[in-house]
């Protein structure tokens, strides 16, 4: 006998830390990641970031990552790499694309909804693969910003749903209140 009852939503929340930070910066507010959990109600929440070494001193990024970890996220991290390209001087590089793409594919095994906070077009193929397994994918990034958008056109079009952080409704849902911002800024 057929049932019209939908299966319960099982959500994986995957956040590209660097991309989400830049998107929020472009739209003019800090994202409250605890409110993001309340909004999406995921069964698993992963935050991907490359971090500078703590030996070089505590900074606000370490405080923010500690707060995110304490508030319900699994933090997937690796050390930021420092290199000198001989032209521009010393640069920091920390790319988590491979780790995030692998987790998109792993999440598609058990979730029926993946929420991806990133605008990086490199994830389009991983999103398509998840969709071919019957998973609905929501992408959250910034489109309507000054300068170039933070979302690639290919990823936005591939997503089942796109949520623009520049939309006032998203700001109302995700903006961090001043008391938390002051803590994370060290003031």
Overview of the molecule:
This protein is an alpha/beta fold. Helix content is 38%, strand content 23%. A 6-stranded parallel sheet has the order 3-2-1-6-7-8, sandwiched between helices. It has a two-stranded antiparallel ribbon with strand order 4-5. Strand 4 (81-84) and strand 5 (90-93) form a beta hairpin.
The residue ranges in which pLDDT falls below 50 over 5 or more consecutive positions are none
Measured between the Cα atoms of the first and last residue, the distance is 61 Å
Number of strands: 8
Give a quick account of the main beta sheet: strands, pairing sense, barrel closure.
6 strands, parallel
Summarize the structure.
The chain is an alpha/beta fold and 187 residues long.
Key phrases:
six-stranded parallel beta sheet, alpha/beta, 187 residues, 8 strands, 38% helix, two-stranded antiparallel sheet, globular
Helices and strands in order, then pairings?
Layout: E1 11-16, H1 17-27, H2 33-40, E2 44-51, H3 60-70, E3 74-79, E4 81-84, E5 90-93, H4 97-107, E6 113-117, H5 124-132, E7 136-141, H6 153-158, E8 161-164, H7 168-174, H8 178-185
Parallel strand pairs: 1-2, 1-6, 2-3, 6-7, 7-8
Antiparallel strand pairs: 4-5
Helix pairs in contact: 4-5
């Amino acid at each position: 006998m057929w049932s019209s009852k939908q299966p319960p939503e099982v959500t994986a929340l995957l956040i590209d830390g660097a991309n989400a930070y830049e998107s929020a910066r472009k739209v003019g507010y800090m994202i409250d990641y605890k409110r993001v959990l309340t909004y999406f109600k995921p069964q698993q929440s992963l935050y991907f970031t490359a971090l500078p070494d703590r030996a070089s001193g505590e900074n606000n990024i370490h405080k923010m990552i500690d707060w995110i970890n304490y508030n319900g996220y699994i933090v997937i991290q690796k050390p930021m790499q420092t290199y000198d390209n001989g032209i521009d001087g010393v640069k920091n590089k920390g790319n988590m694309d491979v780790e995030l793409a692998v987790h998109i594919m792993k999440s598609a095994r058990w979730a029926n909804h993946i929420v991806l906070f990133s605008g990086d077009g490199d994830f389009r193929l991983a999103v398509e693969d998840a969709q071919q397994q019957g998973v609905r994918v929501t992408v959250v990034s910034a489109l309507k910003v000054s300068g170039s958008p933070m979302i690639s056109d290919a990823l936005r079009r591939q997503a089942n749903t796109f949520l623009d952080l520049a939309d006032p409704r998203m700001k109302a849902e995700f903006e961090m209140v001043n008391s938390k911002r002051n803590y994370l800024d060290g003031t």
